[in-house]
Design brief:
Helix content is about 50%, strand content about 10%. With about 725 residues, it is α/β, with parallel strands linked by helices. The protein has five domains: about 1-200, Rossmann fold; about 205-380, P-loop containing nucleotide triphosphate hydrolases (Rossmann fold, 3-Layer(aba) Sandwich); about 400-505, Arc Repressor Mutant, subunit A; about 525-625, DNA polymerase, domain 1 (Orthogonal Bundle); about 630-725, no CATH class. It is globular and about 80 Å long. The protein binds adenosine-5'-diphosphate and zinc ion (ZN). Zinc ion binds near residues 390, 391, 392, 394 and 397.
Length: about 725
Amino acid sequence: MIEQAQQALKKIYGFDTFRKGQEEIISGILEGHDTLAILPTGGGKSVCYQIPAMLLPGTTLVISPLISLMKDQVDSLRRLGVSAAFLNSSLGAAEYRGVLRSAMNGDYKLLYVAPERLDAPMFQSLSEQLQIPLIAIDEAHCVSQWGHDFRPSYRQLAEWIGRMPNRPLVAGFTATATNEVAEDIVRMLRLRNPKTYVTGFARPNLSLSVVTGADKKRFLLRFLKEREQQSGIIYAATRKETQQVTELLQSEGIEASKYHGGLSDAERMEAQEQFRFDQVRIMVATNAFGMGIDKPNVRYVVHWQIPGDLESYYQEAGRAGRDGEESECVLLFEPADMQIQRFLIEQGMAAEDRKSIQMSKLHNMMNYCRTDRCLQQYIVDYFGESDVEPCGKCSSCLDKSELTDRTEEAKMALSCVGRMKGRFGVTMVAKVLKGSRDKRLLESGLDRLSTYSLMRHLPEKEIADWLYWLVAEGYLRLTEGQYPTVTLASNALPVLEGRETIKQRVRATVKQAHSASASFASPVFESLKQWRKEAAAKEGVPPFMIFSDATLREIAVAMPAHRDELLAVKGIGAAKADRYGDELLQLAQELRSLHGGAAQRVSSPSSNQGESPQASPVARASRSVGEEEPSHLASFQLFQEGHDPGEIAKQRGMSQVTVEGHIIRCATEGMAIDWNRIIVPEEEPLILGAIEEAGAEKLKPIKDLLPESVSYFAIKAVLCKKSMMG
Ligand code: ADP
Ligand code: ZN
C-alpha cells in the first residue's frame, strides 16, 4: 500500500519524497489506525489525508473550519485530476443541492464539509448512503476548550461520529497543540487507540525576531524597503491600528491592502484576492485575516503589536514560509502594547474562568518577548517539546549585545510607585517622574513627592514604557479592570534595598541573518513568474495554484527541453505537465535564446534525447563527478549544504577562486542564495560605497578602497546582488 502512496506522491503531486512524518501517518491510516497528527504549518498535512482518500474505496470526509481554505484545496485537487468538492455556506442553495446530490452518488474522492454545515440528520444521511472510509478533521485543536480557538460545532462532531453504524477511521490534524490540548483532542473526538505522530513544531525555515525599543514606524518602512519584491503580512491588534499602518505605508508610496472585521464582506474579499493573486504584495490586517490563507510564498510576517497568546502568534507568524523557503517573522514589542491585549481580554465575551486562562496565556506571550533564550526553542518548549537545539538565527541566538545595567532607573521608578500607594495608573506615575504640570497631578499634590521629576531627562512615553517593562518583568503589578492602577510587586523589594540589580537588553534591529536576498530573482525567474501570473489570470486562480516559487526557480535553472525533464522538476506531476507542458517548454526555449547564460545546462550532454533524467538538476549536480554535469551546480550544491568555498575547492580539486565563481554564477542564474554567508552585513554599505567611487569595471580599485578584511568574493557578491536587484 505504501508503494502506491509513494507513486501517488510522484505521479499526482510531482514530489519525489515524503516530508518528515508523512509516510508514517499515511501508512498508519492505510493500516486502519485512528490517528492524531501534529505537524507544523507547512509540514504538509493535506497530503496525509488526501493520499489515503485517493487510495481507499469510497468518499473521505474532510472537516475543516476554514471556508477559503476548503475552496483552495478543492481547486488544487481538481487541478491535480482528483474529484473533490466542498459543502459550506459560501455555496448558493442550488449549488449546494447539486454538490450534495453528486456526493450521495459517490462522485467525489474527497468531500470537504464545514462543521457548522453538519447537523444530525445530514450527517446520518451521508453516513447511510455513502461509503466513508475515513473522516479527516483538520484544525482538530478547535475541539478543545484549552486551545486558543475553541469551536462548539466541533464538539458535536464526536457525538455523531460515535453514533455512525460503520464507524470510519478518524484522523485529527493540527499544527498547534500543547500536551493538554492533544489529550483533549483524543478524548473529545473519541479516537480509538490512536497512533499519535508529533513531528515537532520547529520551523527551520523561519527566522524569528523580537524587536524592542525601536521606532516602529521607521523600522517598518526600512524593513519593507529592503524587501521590495516580497510578499508579506503585517498584523496589528486593532482595526484602528490597521488603518494607521496602512496610511503610513500609503504616505510613503508603498502599496498595501488592508483587512479587518470592520470592512464589508466585499471589501475583505477584494483585499484577500488581491493579495492571493500577487497583485498587492503587502497585507495589513487584524487577526481576522489568515484563517484559511494558505498562500505559500509569504516571505515575512511582521507583528505591529503582540498578540494575545503564543499559539496565535505562532499560527500567524507561521503563515510565512509555508513553501519551506527562508522567511522572517518579526515581532515589534513595546511593553505598553500589552495593555491593548489586556483590554481585549477584559472587554471580551468569554466566561470568567476562560478569561483567566487567557490572562495567563498573555503572560507567556510577554515572556517570549523578553526571553534571552532561543526563540524557536522557547516556542517549541511551550508546546511540550524540550529537546530542540538552538536555531542559530533568531534574534536571541544572534544577539551579542551587552546587557545594560538599569538598576538606578528602576529604583527611581519603583520608589515613585511605592509613594503613590497604588492609587494611580502608569500614565500618572510617568507624569510624576517626568515632572509634568498636569492639572490632576497638581491637584493631588503629587508634585510634592520626593520622586517628582526624577526622570525629567526622558520623554514621558519612554518613562511609561519603562514602567511597563518593569510590570512585564514582574517588579510592578497592574490591577485588573478598566482603569488598572500600579503597585509594587514583591520582587521590587530586593531592588529597592540594593540587593538585586536589573539588566535590560535592548534590541533595536533585526539582524540580517537571512535577509530578503535569499529569494530574489533572476530575469529568467521573473519571466516565468510573469507567465505564471498571466496563466493564473486566465484561469482565475491565484498564481501559487499553478506552480510554487520553488518549482519556477527550479525550472529557471533546469530550462527543460523535454517533457521528461519537466516531470523531473519538483512540483510538476502528470496533470500539470499535460496542462502546462507545451507552453512551458516553448517559453523555456524562448528564454534560452534570450538569456544565453541560463541555457548552459541544456546544451550539456546529460540532456540528450532519449536519456531521461531522474532527478532535478540540483540533485543531479550533487552526485556529479563526471564531466557531463555542470560543474558550477555541483559547487553550488556543496555550498548549499553548508561547506565554505575553501573546503569545496579542496574536495573538488580546483582553486577557491573557481569555486567562488561557480557560486556567483549560480546566483546570476537564479538559484536562491543566502548572501549573508558571503557578505558581512555591516560591510555591505562600505562595499557599495567603494563601488560607487571606483566604478564596477575592475575589482582591484574597489578592493583598494576597503579594509583588508573585505574579500574579493564579498565584492563580487555585492556586485552580483546589485546587478540583479537593478
Ligand atoms: P499544512 O496544511 O501542514 O500547513 P500543506 O498541506 O498546505 O501544509 O503543505 C504545505 C506545502 O508543502 C504545500 O505547498 C504542499 O504542496 C507542499 N508539500 C507537501 N508535501 C510535500 C512533499 N512531500 N514534498 C514537497 N512538497 C510538499
Ligand atoms: Zn534561536
